[in-house]
Design brief:
The chain has 838 residues and is mainly β. The chain starts with a helix and ends with a strand.
Length: 838
């Protein structure tokens, strides 16, 4: 019997052919009337979208790549599977590593621009997901196939030089004073900061006018300054500046000049290529999660495959604070180790570099316009070392300097540099001197101590900076004791040595204490000492009362100032900005040297959704005649910022005012806005008057369809969003968020496609029956498409009066209807309507 059962089982199994399974969508879940359903084959195939063209945000994990237009098409195998078509233009913007980029370049050479590329053939584990609610397409790509550069920097192809435009920031302010014991005094100021943008060029120039009136005497002064032009050179990540400017370096003091400079523009580089951070190296025994923390916060996280790893794309965070590296293996085991981290401004990563080259002449009033050349550069070398140097060359002055900086790990970071100068003194011959400097930085996480830029400089008597040499040529020196220029050959005002320190120490629950000091001695006599000690603590149990105490001592050749300062502030409001915020503060300043003191009590805060800031304070001094009562307010309007104040003391009453804003001239007219930074965004949304810009409070689309966002981040993606709550009933916008990446100084323009008209929820019937679920309804005016829901209702936005729509009932069967509402139509946010499709 057992043998018979076995034979039967073998015969049955030998007759079994291949079997298939397929996901099946049961249409009965949508209701009993299956005949009312349009073609559900795409839904049954497991798709989240139907064939068509979509505008989506392309992302990889949490990393946004770009807004794209992408086509979704049905696969050729007839299984109703809908897939995205990754064309060459889309593949090019995905941050693949160099190996994959070469593979795709070879594959796409012979393909047409519209051809679809199968990314999964090149990348095991590639996948994607679609979120239509957020209009996003997210790619899943293993980290090993991606470019290792971590940055929020936008793709260079997306950098926008902006539109031709002329923008002016204006600042108008003034004051009037009435004094019981002297003549009245008034002061007025108008400053215009202008910039003309043409392509990548930025032409800048400032004009200001001042007027002062004392009694019957009036003085006017008008000046033009800071006239210069700049432009980027993307290929070498550099910037050219021509005109009036100032230039400095790691080795030399800042110089005002007229001329031309080419210098690296670090803001064009990825975050991970700027500054310095130590390499993170190790070996993973299995696929592991790598987490790097600094001061308890995660600053980097990724997955690494078995074998050695070398993390070189860590973005610098702060100037110190050791890195804690945590490696979690596939079996759950965790290993940790510490990488000491301290840095200085001179330090660069391996392979990093910067440079600057200037040709010009000094631009210091009262001095000769000496022509000069200045060169400087830095290079990141192996062993966490950076070499830097520079030179200044002119007819009467030459200097050359060289320095080295190194990260010593647990010992901290240190740099040393030296500058040699030769100054032509005419018939007195040449003065030759040197200046030496050492800097040090270190944090001690165990004790909560942080030392920053502790340094020492020594200059010999024959050493001159370029500025000092220029003053000496005109027999002038700046004396820090008098604050004036003296006409003699003495050594007053020239630094002999200087050392400074900055120490911050956390006291845990007792707050934080900081110590800062500087001692400078001068050739020819004189020593300046400045010491400051401070302590601050927030008392949570006393309604977040902040207490700060500091002591400052400044001495110079026998003259001294000993200042004690005590400050506290406490919130009086709930913190809800809609209701306004209010704080009370008190500060007390005592000068031990002359036994004087002053005490200021203030009530300050904001109101009107933080648009209005106010401050009411009174200062009481040792000399009661100098007691002051002050009221001031600042209001941020849509197109400007206004401030005003009133000050009263026993002999003097003063009022002051101020208005700041900007005016932008472009091809289509003027736009007025708040004072703009050097990089701004012009928003065009014709027909959307009153719509709010989410990025800036109180900025709305004006009657001409424009608004100015007064600031943006250069070379990074900036979201521009219209607040949908602020839309009127008579318009709608398909894409309410756009992304732009302006270059430095650009006025970038974004255009929203506003559909004028009303929104309707329309029940469409054909032969007295609702149209089928999934039926497409097309606007014959702009070819926009809507899809019917399960009861035959479609949502139509931006409907103009007398608009015709066509309905596809079948393969060769269509009908149409028209929506008429007339000029006196009183619209709701969404208007309901029943129509017959004929």
């Amino acid at each position: 019997m057992r043998i018979a059962r076995t034979v039967f089982f073998v015969i049955v199994c030998s007759r079994v052919g291949f079997s298939y399974s397929q996901d099946y969508f049961n249409p009965m879940f949508l209701g009993g009337d299956v005949a009312s359903l349009q073609d559900l084959s795409y839904l049954a195939g497991g798709n989240t979208v139907t064939p068509g063209i979509y505008y989506l945000d392309l992302s990889i994990g949490e990393r946004f790549v770009k807004n794209i237009q992408i086509k979704f098409a049905e696969d050729d195998d007839g299984n109703k599977k809908v897939s995205p078509c990754f064309t060459k233009s889309i593949v090019d913007i995905i941050p693949f590593n160099k190996v994959l980029k070469k593979e795709f370049e070879l594959e796409t050479q012979s393909l047409s621009p519209d051809a679809c590329i199968d990314i999964a053939q090149h990348i095991p584990g590639f996948d994607y997901s679609i979120d239509l609610a957020n209009l996003s397409l997210n790619l899943s790509i293993p980290q090993i196939y991606l470019d290792s550069v971590r940055s929020t920097l936008a793709k260079e192809a997306d950098w926008d030089d902006g539109i031709p435009a002329l923008i002016t920031n204006y600042n108008i302010n003034g004051s009037n004073s009435w004094n019981k014991h002297s003549d009245n005094y008034s002061y007025n100021y108008i400053g215009l900061s202008n910039r003309l943008n043409v392509g990548p060029w930025r032409f800048n120039g400032n004009v200001y006018w001042t007027q002062s009136r004392y009694g019957n005497k009036t003085t006017n002064d008008t000046r033009i300054s800071n006239v210069y032009a700049t432009r980027d050179f993307r290929e070498i990540k550099s910037r050219l500046t021509v005109g009036q400017n100032s230039i400095g370096s790691n080795l030399f003091d800042s110089l005002p000049y007229i001329g031309a400079t080419v210098t690296t523009a670090d803001e064009m580089l990825p975050d991970s290529e700027r500054g310095y951070s130590p390499p993170i190296k190790g070996v993973a025994n299995s696929r592991s999660k790598l987490v790097i923390r600094q001061n308890g916060l995660i600053v980097y996280q990724t997955f690494v495959d078995p074998g050695p790893y070398d993390i070189t794309d860590l973005n610098p965070v702060g100037s110190s604070g050791d890195y804690e590296v945590e490696l979690t293996a596939a079996d759950g085991s965790v290993s940790k180790y510490i990488i000491p981290y301290s840095t200085l401004p001179n330090l660069l990563k391996l392979g990093g570099y910067n440079y600057s080259a200037t040709l010009g002449q000094l631009d210091i009033r009262g001095l000769d316009q000496t022509r000069f050349v200045q060169l400087s550069g830095s290079m990141g070398l192996p062993l966490q070392t950076t070499l830097y140097g520079g030179a200044q060359i002119s007819a009467h002055y030459n200097a050359i300097g060289l320095g080295i900086a190194k990260d010593f790990g647990g010992f901290g970071a240190m740099s040393f540099d030296a500058v040699n100068s030769i100054t032509d003194l005419g018939d007195r011959g040449n003065d030759i001197g040197q200046s030496y400097r050492i800097l040090y930085a270190k944090s001690f996480n165990e004790t909560g101590t942080n030392l920053q830029l502790t340094g020492y400089r020594y200059s010999t008597s024959g050493y001159y900076t370029f500025n000092e040499a220029a003053f000496k040529k005109r027999n002038k020196f700046f004396d820090p004791l008098t604050g004036e220029y003296s006409n003699n050959y003495s050594l007053a005002g020239r630094m002999k040595s200087s050392y400074q320190w900055s120490i911050a120490q956390s006291l845990g629950q007792l707050g934080q204490v900081a110590l800062w000091g500087n001692v400078t001695s001068y050739w020819g006599g004189g020593t300046a000492k400045n010491l400051q000690v401070s302590w601050n603590k927030t008392l949570e149990k006393l309604n977040n009362l902040l207490v700060s105490i500091s002591y400052n001592k400044y001495t110079y050749d026998g003259s001294a100032n000993d200042l004690f300062y005590f400050y506290l502030t406490m919130p009086l409001s709930t913190g809800d900005s809609r209701r306004g915020t209010m704080y009370a503060s008190n500060s007390f300043l005592y000068n031990k040297t002359d036994k004087s003191y002053s005490n200021s009590t203030s009530l300050y805060g904001s109101a009107l959704d933080d648009d209005l800031n106010y401050n009411i304070y009174q200062t009481v001094n040792k000399d009661s005649r100098s007691n002051v009562t002050n009221l001031s307010a600042n209001y941020k309007a849509d197109m400007m910022q206004v401030n005003a104040g009133l000050s009263y003391s026993e002999p003097t009453t003063q009022i002051n005012y101020g208005i700041t804003g900007s005016a932008l001239l472009h091809y289509n007219g003027f736009v007025f806005g708040r004072e703009a930074s050097d990089t701004a965004i012009l928003v065009e949304a014709k027909g959307a008057e009153g719509a709010k810009i989410n990025q800036v409070d109180k900025v709305t689309i004006n009657k001409d369809g424009y608004a100015l966002i007064p600031y943006s981040t250069p070379y990074h993606y900036n979201d521009v969003e219209l607040d949908p709550v602020s839309f009127g009933n008579d318009f709608d916008i398909d894409t309410k968020i756009l992304k732009v990446a302006p270059t430095r100084g650009a006025i970038t323009k974004v255009v929203f496609d506003v559909r004028s008209g009303y929104n309707f929820l329309v029940l469409v019937k054909h032969n007295n029956k609702p149209i089928l679920f999934g039926t497409m309804v097309t606007n014959t005016l702009d070819n926009s498409i809507a899809v019917a829901d399960d009861d035959g209702t479609v949502y139509l936005s931006g409907v103009k009066d007398n608009t015709k729509y066509t309905v596809k009932l079948g393969e060769n069967n269509i009908c149409s209807f028209t929506i008429n509402y007339g000029a006196d139509f009183k619209a709701d946010v969404v208007n309901k309507l029943d129509v017959d499709c004929l």
